[in-house]
């Protein structure tokens, strides 16, 4: 009986401590996270790591619900959903933010970042903080960090080497449906075809498009390699995805809740970056084992062509050239 009473007392004290901790944080909150990524994608798993860390550190004061596979909103709808408060958070790339912040198109352009180290130093440093705050002012959606998605490569349903941009002439290359993404496809030399990510596998399988561009970890996790025959390493975009939160929701949180969320964001970033770097290092051999041909592009030819294309297009008129020079200097 004494042992039972002692255990009950310990349980009561633990519950009391959790309740006291939660009350220090403020009123309980729920965060709805909408993702178009499939559940096996590293960045989706990173947000699940975010969920685990936040709920654990907050003692349940912050309840995170992560929805993957576009079950709540499509890729084209997510920015509007988060800005309008229909979802609290999502993972958003710079290209999807150019409609409300045209100047940010410079971060969606090919060959702006030279490497993973260059990208993360910029976007997870002081420049990134200023960029994120400016996006929040423009659109009411606050990016909190940059997760490494991988360096984007071109993969085709036929076995064809892509050495220079001229080799993409006439190729229907799937791109996400936004101005910035479609312009990237044009700059690469292809015929960009807008298709939602959730429809891409079937579009490749049925020949609606000839190929697509994505980081190698995404090609593997979404199983695009099952319906493709070749991959060319172009490294045309050192890609990142930004965990974003509705600005009004962020401003409604206590400082303690914000601190816990940022700890969760950092835990997700470390998981995402380290996992994707390791996967990229091993996936070339994996794809070869699956029967795909892997080719190397002329990176200098691509970089020269792509950057010249952007600078001669009205899309770059809104770029912050001083900021771009700072970014390039860090590379």
Could you walk me through the main structural features you see in this protein, from its secondary elements to its overall organization?
There is one protein chain. It is built from 12 helices and 10 strands. With 331 residues, it is α/β, with parallel strands linked by helices. Strands 1, 2, 3, 4, 5, 6, 7, 8, 9 and 10 form a 10-stranded mixed beta sheet that branches. Helix 2 (42-57) runs antiparallel to helix 10 (255-289) and helix 6 packs across helix 11 (299-311). The model is unreliable at 1-20 (pLDDT under 50).
**What is the percent of helical residues?**
40-55%
| Radius of gyration, CA atoms, in whole angstroms | 22 Å
Total beta strand runs: 10
In N-to-C order, the SSE pattern is HEHEHEHHEEEHEHEHEHHEHH
Average per-residue pLDDT, rounded, comes to 92
Can you tag this structure with a few keywords?
ten-stranded mixed β-sheet; globular; alpha/beta; 331 residues; 19% strand; 12 helices; single chain; 10 strands
Topology:
Blueprint: H1 2-25, E1 29-34, H2 42-57, E2 62-67, H3 78-84, E3 89-92, H4 116-123, H5 126-139, E4 141-143, E5 147-156, E6 172-175, H6 179-188, E7 191-194, H7 200-206, E8 211-215, H8 216-221, E9 230-246, H9 247-252, H10 255-289, E10 293-296, H11 299-311, H12 321-330
Helix pairs in contact: 2-10, 6-11
Short note summarizing the structure:
With 331 residues, the chain is α/β, with parallel strands linked by helices. It has 12 helices and 10 strands. It is 47% helix and 19% strand.
